[in-house]
Each structure stands twice: as structure tokens, then as C-alpha cells.
Amino acid sequence: MNRTALQGSARVRLALGAALVSSVLCAPVCAAPSAAAAPANASEVTAASSVARTGAERSCPVVYFDLGETLVHTAEDGSTGYQPGAASYLRALRERHIRVGLITNVPSSWGTTDAARAARLKKEVDGTWQGPAPFAWKDFGDRILTPRTEAERKPAPALWQRAKAGAGHCRVVYQAETAEEVTVASSLGFVPYQVGRPHRPAFLPVGLVELLGRRSG
């Protein structure tokens, strides 16, 4: 490939990156199905270029998810399984060594610690699981955050605040199916992405997660 073609390819990637940045930043604002995504402008292109130039910085994004109807779907018969595309998306994050976590509501009575409540959550999900592969619990490690009291249940800010504190200087992303949750997450410093929206990727593209992660959160 000659230099002109390489330069043209780079410009295309930059333009696509800027458009995706615009889509992410629009997520909590454009929750209504009729809202149109804002087009990329010069400032967004400059911002995307700035992100690309920070490749020497430590890349350490942490991607948090809601669980139900974001990564996992519950069918009418009560069985559970992956949402379309969720298994392959988690695998792509794993292959790029991007850490993931869960911020999910469960009864606070399920345990006195996050670990105890997470163990009960795994038992509940695995007990109704159907599909060729089990849910990838090991990807999440100890980053499964659940309410310690009923007052901490989302959309209260407590779980997001705990996730952000645990991420240190790393940028944090939050993906969920509800506009209310991504709006709250955005207000607390997360990069928000509402999944399940028509005419856009099912999940925040992994390449953009990497770019965002190269800037400290």
C-alpha cells in the first residue's frame, strides 16, 4: 500500500473514531428513540486525534456492565442466557486484557459482603442458565458490585461511586440497557453507552474502549 493510500486510510479511521466518540457522548442525552445522533465536527476530530496521540500513556480502561438485559437475557420461561453478541464481546475484551465488572441490583439480604452476594447471584443465574457456554464469571473477578443496603440500589449513585474509586486513575465505562442508568453513570464520570439501541453497535466498540482508556479517567 502506498503512502497516499495509508494516509487516506488513517483519515477514514480518525473520522470513524470521531463519529463513535460523538455517539458515546450523546448516549445519555439521546435516549429518546426519535433523537438523531450529532454529526462529528472539527472539535470532535481534534479530540479523537488527541486520544490517538496518547498511546504512550498506560491504557487501563475498566468496563462495567449492568447484568440483566444487558449481558444476560431472561426468557419468558425463566431460563437465562447471553444477550446476542454479549459472549463474543466479553471474549474480545478478554483478548485485549481489558478489565470488566458488574454493577447490578440484587437483594442486600443475599449477603453481608460483595463476595457473598456475588456468590448468590452466580447460583441464581447458573441455576437457570441455558446455552453452549456458561456465563464468564471469572472475567469479572472481584469487580461484582451489589447493594450493601436497599438504599444503595441503582439508580442511587453508591455502586458507581464505589466502582470509580476502585478504578484509580483508569477511565471507567458503563454499559446498560436503560437510559436512566447511563445518565446517572455519565454524571458520575463514567463513559456511558446505552446498549440495545437501533442503528448503532450492540456494545461500545472495543477499539474505542482502548482509545478512551489511554487517557486517565
TrEMBL record:
Keywords: Signal. InterPro entries: HAD-like_sf, HAD_sf. Residues 1-31 form the signal peptide. CDD domains: HAD_like. It comes from the Bacteria. This is Secreted protein. It comes from Streptomyces longisporoflavus.
